[in-house]
Write a structure and sequence with these properties.
14 helices; binds ligand KE4; Aspartate Aminotransferase, domain 1; 4-stranded mixed β-sheet; 2 domains; Aspartate Aminotransferase, domain 2
Length: 438
């Protein structure tokens, strides 16, 4: 069964006349896997349908938000009600307080929270707050972790052991990049060495406690506790970027799963239920510095927007009502799928790495352990490309990059999992044939 992408091909060509690369976010362009991205017409439950009327089982789920599955009837009904009351007021509403109370109930470390409109805004604002609170300038991030596209975090490790940052994109001034220090993920000794030299100048460490932007890489046992200890020792804030891991690796987030209390947490994706929402929050003593309570300015026309808050409130409420059963289901389906993919690959003597936690999973086309960005980059991206397209042409929609995470939803039933495993067998046969010709 080969999926024709006739209309998508035309749509992609036209889109490029008006939108850079034809997409409003780079990863959607299929740049790293090649080919034409299907243009989507609709989505329901675990399925996507494209404008050529092809149907796919979706493991991207809008990069995490759609944990209930697409177009959940209770979310849709609530939005239909809300939109009759207007779309945006630019004034306070009770609903924003209700969402904030729910977030604090689920993640008690978030004593105060500020709504924004994307994960990027959340991390950008959290860094400004950390610098203001500590009166320090430098920040630390980890190679392979992604926190959105603002200047301070579009930085990669500088050459040599200097660890000072160099811009990861044109347009990022060196003056900003050099205030961002980068160390490898899962290497507490490297972080310790950096702090021993520059600890007094470091405002904050920002980390994806469960890293989802180099493919899914989990923290080594005790690693996050060491990061917490080092930051506390030097008076730097620990910022957990849970934009992706929040409500995905576990209902109460990585901070509960690994029992670490961050100073600040960034959220996004799931808390908007598919509408644009980000948030940052944490200790009241720190958050009270944020305007208008304090002097640190941050604002947003559509922050706390009634439609986005409606979708987020319904999504979080539904998850909370049956959290234990829902997350047991998500874990079960994710484990079943990764187990089946592993068996399918090994039938062709392909031995890869399978990482999963809660409703997040990744397969690294790599014979060795993947514990950080350096080892992730050793993966066979050509084999991944063959596998990706073999799956897409069988109606399985995976993240179009080896260095992305895939997601499960409550709408993915056993038939979806079995169909995906069956497609995997065919796809690994193609990888096997491809490898023979290399
Ligand atoms: P947004 O600005 O895209 O809402 O969030 C940025 C962000 C921050 N922190 C983490 C841990 C994230 O994963 C993200 C965004 N994730 C990507 C997926 N790798 C979004 C997909 C995209 O860029 O189109």
């Amino acid at each position: 069964m080969t999926f024709l992408l006739e209309k998508s091909t035309k749509a992609f060509a036209e889109a490029k006349e008006y939108i850079p690369g034809g997409v409003n976010s780079p990863v959607r362009s299929f740049r790293s896997v090649g080919g034409t991205p299907p243009f989507i017409a609709s989505a329901h439950g675990s399925k996507l349908k494209d404008i050529d009327n092809n149907e796919y089982i979706d493991y991207v789920l809008s990069w995490g938000p759609c944990i209930l599955g697409h177009s959940h009837e209770k979310v849709t009904a609530a939005l239909q009600q809300a939109v009759m009351q207007g779309t945006s007021y630019g004034a306070p509403t009770i609903l924003e307080t209700k969402v904030s109370k729910l977030i604090r109930e689920i993640m008690p470390a978030i004593e105060r929270v500020r709504m924004v409109n994307s994960g990027t805004e959340a991390t950008m604002s959290a860094l400004r707050l950390a610098r203001a609170y500590t009166k320090r300038t430098k920040i630390v991030k980890f190679a392979g972790c992604y926190h959105g596209h603002h200047d301070s975090l579009l930085v990669t490790a500088g050459s040599g052991a200097a660890t000072f940052g160099v811009p990861d994109s044109p347009g990022v001034p060196d003056s900003i990049a050099t205030t961002t220090l980068t160390v490898p993920y899962n290497d507490a000794a490297a972080l310790e060495r950096l702090f021993a030299k520059q600890g007094e100048e470091i405002a904050a460490v920002i980390i994806e406690p469960v890293a989802g932007n180099m493919g899914l890489v989990l923290p080594k046992k005790g690693y996050l506790a060491q990061v917490r200890k080092i930051t506390a020792q030097y008076g730097a804030l620990l910022i957990f970027d849970e934009v992706m891991s929040g409500f995905r690796c576990a209902f109460h987030g990585a901070q509960d799963l690994y029992n670490i209390q961050p100073d600040l947490t960034c959220l996004g994706k799931v808390i908007g239920g598919g509408l644009p929402v980000g948030a940052y929050g944490g200790k009241a003593e720190i958050m009270e510095l944020i305007s208008p309570a304090g002097p640190v300015y941050q604002a947003g026309t559509l922050s706390g927007n009634p439609l986005a808050m409606t979708a987020g409130y319904v999504t979080l409420t539904l998850l909370k009502e049956q959290a234990e059963a829902y997350y047991a289901f998500l874990t079960k389906q994710t484990e079943k799928l990764t187990r089946g993919m592993k068996a399918a690959a090994e039938a062709f003597d392909l031995h890869y790495q399978y990482h999963h936690v809660g409703s997040m999973f990744s397969m690294f086309f790599n014979g060795a352990d993947v514990v950080d960005y350096e080892t992730a980059k050793q993966s066979d991206v050509e084999a991944f490309r063959v596998y990706f397209h073999a799956m897409l042409s069988q109606g399985i929609y995976l993240a179009p990059s080896q260095f992305e995470c895939a997601f499960m939803s409550l709408a993915h039933n056993d038939a979806d999992i079995e169909q995906t495993i069956a497609a995997s067998k065919n796809a690994f046969r193609e990888v096997y044939e491809f490898n023979k010709m290399r």
